[in-house]
Design brief:
The protein is mainly beta. It has no helices and 22 strands. Strands 1, 2, 3, 4 and 5 form a 5-stranded antiparallel beta sheet that branches. Strands 6-7-8-9 form a 4-stranded antiparallel beta sheet, with no helix packed on it. The relative contact order is 0.15.
Length: about 290
């Protein structure tokens, strides 16, 4: 790892606990940052930058649905990418009548990254179901993790990674990187891309290719760190060294994007934890540059 550079973007409201999970897309030389607003989770904010250092807030991207809609409670982690002539935002939504127990994946589209329209029909929203993943009927925790979508194309086929829970295994160790394959008008549920049998959830999963090897990263709630696994092929099997911490404690919800000069950037929000008090104080986005 070389040439590490950090840039920060923070909120200025009443509470320091404001900026949550982030996703960034580069388009026409401009970085577009989308992030959650914590603790309300009622909209997805949008900021832009020419250099990843100075950021300007612009029009908010997405809001919770109207009462009775499937995403009328909260919005959680999203991923924005360019698909054909439009941009697509895959986002996590929760419903009030289910009291937030069933997170699902929705879709919104835009042609300029500033104006977004929800397109939840057909295969969306996508929810967790067997045989590989927990469903509402067989969830020991009585609430599902099926969230934090990440879209990736492999051999011209779209796949979605999600923070999911295996239908089998010890209750506190079912966390896995769920894998979905998009057919023309349907979603195929595949076996988990990676299941370490160690964690409750593997949050904000992401896969990228670097120097001929694939790397999967995820954020671990148990120790508030970003960890990684590697494989020679996209579909795995993924492995890890004994010390597989990519970003140390406090960094969370990391995602990857290519920069203007071809470097690979990893973004996260940063949670400052005082030595005498485990409480969030400052959130920011962090860029780590690799050769």
């Amino acid at each position: 790892m070389q040439n590490i550079q950090r840039s920060f973007y923070s909120g200025s409201g009443f509470s320091d606990w404001e900026i949550g999970d982030v996703t960034i897309i580069l388009h026409n030389g401009i970085y577009h940052l989308f992030h959650l607003i914590i603790p309300n989770h009622d909209y997805i904010a949008h900021a832009v930058s020419n250099d990843c250092i100075s950021w300007k807030r612009v029009k908010n991207a997405l809001f919770v649905g109207d009462p009775g809609e499937w995403d009328d409670d909260m919005l959680w982690t999203m991923h924005v990418c360019k698909v054909g002539e439009r941009f697509e935002m895959y986002y996590t939504g929760l419903q009030r009548k289910l009291r937030g127990t069933n997170s699902m994946i929705g879709l919104a589209v835009s042609y300029d990254l500033y104006n977004w329209e929800k397109k939840n029909q057909g295969i969306f929203p996508i929810e967790s179901k067997g045989p590989y993943y927990e469903s509402m009927e067989d969830s020991p925790r009585k609430w599902l993790s099926f969230r934090d979508p990440f879209r990736i194309e492999h051999e011209n086929t779209p796949y979605y990674l999600v923070c999911a829970r295996s239908a089998q295994g010890p209750v506190s160790r079912r966390g896995c990187i769920g894998l979905l394959k998009q057919e023309t008008d349907s979603i195929q549920y595949l076996k988990p891309l990676h299941m370490p049998m160690v964690y409750d959830d593997l949050e904000c999963p992401c896969v990228f290719e670097l120097n001929g090897r694939y790397y999967a990263i995820a954020s671990i709630r148990e120790d508030v760190k970003v960890r990684y696994w590697f494989s020679d092929t996209f579909l795995g099997e993924y492995h890890a060294f004994h010390a597989n911490v990519l970003l140390p404690q406090g960094n969370y919800a990391a995602r990857v994007v290519e920069s203007i000069n071809g470097k690979t950037l990893i973004y996260s929000f940063f949670l400052y934890i005082r030595p005498d008090q485990f409480a969030p104080r400052v959130f920011a986005s962090q860029a780590v540059r690799y050769r």
